[in-house]
Amino acid sequence: MALINENYLKLKAGYLFPEIGRRVKEFTDANPDKKVIRMGIGDVTQPLTPTVLKAFHAGVEEMGKAETFRGYGPEQGYDFLREAIAKNAYQASGIDISADDIIVSDGSKCDTGNIQEIFGADNKIAICDPVYPVYSDTTVMSGKTGECAANGYYSGIIYMPCTDANGFIPELPTERPDLIFLCYPNNPTGTVAGKEELAKWVKYAKDNKSIILFDAAYESFITEAGIPRSIYEIEGAKEVAIEFRSFSKTAGFTGTRCAFTVIPEELKAYDSEGNAHSVKKLWLRRHTTKFNGVSYPVQKAAAAVYTEEGQKEVNEVVAYYMENARIMRESLSAAGYQVFGGVNAPYIWVKTKGGMKSWDFFDKVLNEANVVGTPGSGFGPAGEGYFRFSAFADRANVVDAMERVKNLS
Ligand code: MLT
C-alpha cells in the first residue's frame, strides 16, 4: 500500500494564487463581456529586453550547430553566468562573494522551498506574518509543524507579526528559531529593512547559531539610497545567511526561469553531535542530484542582463513598474486608503476600509471594479484586513484600475 506524506493533509487550502485564479475564472466565465484587470500575482507584463532577447536567440542558434551544441551543463550553472553574477551583483558594490558561492537554479520559489530538505526535521522555523506562502507551506510539507489551529497558525512555527505598529519589521522572537525566513524588500507588504534592522538579525543569528534565509528577489526595485540590497552588506552575514535572488521580476524571467542562491563557504550548520558542516556542500549535493541545470540559452540571456546595454534596459523596465507603483500609491491614498510599500518594492499594501475582511474586499473589487488583487489574509492571519496590489501591469491598465477602485461604492 502506497502511503502519502501526511504533512500535505495539514495544509489548510490550495496554494494562494491558484485559488485566486479559480475565483477569477469563475467570474470571467459568468461575465465574458467584462474587462478584468489583473494585479494579483506578481507576474511581469513587459517583454524581455532587446539585449537579453538577442543573447537568448544566439544561445538557441548555438544549440542548432554541431560545433557549438551543448548537452548537460554544470548543474550549478555555467561559469560565465556565475562569474557575471558575482562580479556585477556583488563585487561591484564591494561585497566579497565569489562565483563559487553562486548556485544557479530555475527559481527562488523552488530554492526557498527546497532548501528545507538539507536541514533536519527538528529545526524550528521562524517566519513573518504576513509572509510569502511558500515559506510556510513548505515548512508544513517538510514535517516541521503540527496541525493548523483555528486562528490560522500551524503549531511548531514561530510567527513574527509584521504590522503597521512595528513598521513591518519583525521583533526578535522570544523562542529561539534555527532557521529564519526574511524577505526584503518585502513580499507582500512592499516595505524595506534598513541596515540597522538587518544587522540586529545577523547578530541574533550569530548569537543563536541560527541561519537566515534571506529572500532578496525584489532588490532591484529599491529606489531610495542606503537601503541594503543584499544581506551580505551586513558585516558577519556570510557566516549566518543564505541569499536568494531571481531574474524573474528584475529582468522579466517569470516564464523563462532563472534565479540563483548564494551560500558562502563560511556558512555552517551542525549535526546532532555539534560538528560543523558546510551548508554549500550539502546544497550542491542536493542540487547536483535532483537538478540538471537551467538551459544554456536561458543562462546566456541571464548573463546579458549584466552587460552595459542589458543593465540600461532592465533598469528602464524596473523604473516603468515603479512609476506604476507611484501612480497606485497616490491614487489609493487620494481614494482614502491607508497605503504602505510601493516605494522600494513593486507591491502596494492597502488597509481595507471599515475593517472589511480581505476576501470580502477581494470579491468586492472583482465584482464591482473587475480588478484582481491579492487578499492580505492569504499571506497569513496578520494580513487580515489588508489587500495587495501588484505594480507589474501595463500603464493603461494601472490608470484604468485605479479609476475603477476609486469609484467603488
Ligand atoms: C507573488 O505574487 O507573490 C509572486 O509573484 C509569487 C512568486 O514569485 O512566486
Give the structure's gist in a few sentences.
The protein has 409 residues and is α/β, with parallel strands linked by helices.
General description of the model:
The protein has 409 residues and is α/β, with parallel strands linked by helices. The chain folds into two domains: 7-47 and 309-406, Alpha-Beta Complex (Aspartate Aminotransferase, domain 1); 53-306, 3-Layer(aba) Sandwich (Aspartate Aminotransferase, domain 2), CATH 3.40.640.10. The protein contains 13 helices and 15 strands. It has a seven-stranded mixed β-sheet with strand order 2-8-7-6-5-3-4, sandwiched between helices. Strands 11-12-15-14 form a four-stranded antiparallel β-sheet. Strands 1-13 form a two-stranded parallel ribbon. Strand 9 (268-270) and strand 10 (276-278) form a beta hairpin. Helix 4 runs parallel beside helix 10. The longest helix has 27 residues, at 308-334. The protein is globular and about 60 Å long. The termini are far apart. The chain binds D-malate. D-malate is lined by residues 41-43, 109, 132, 187.
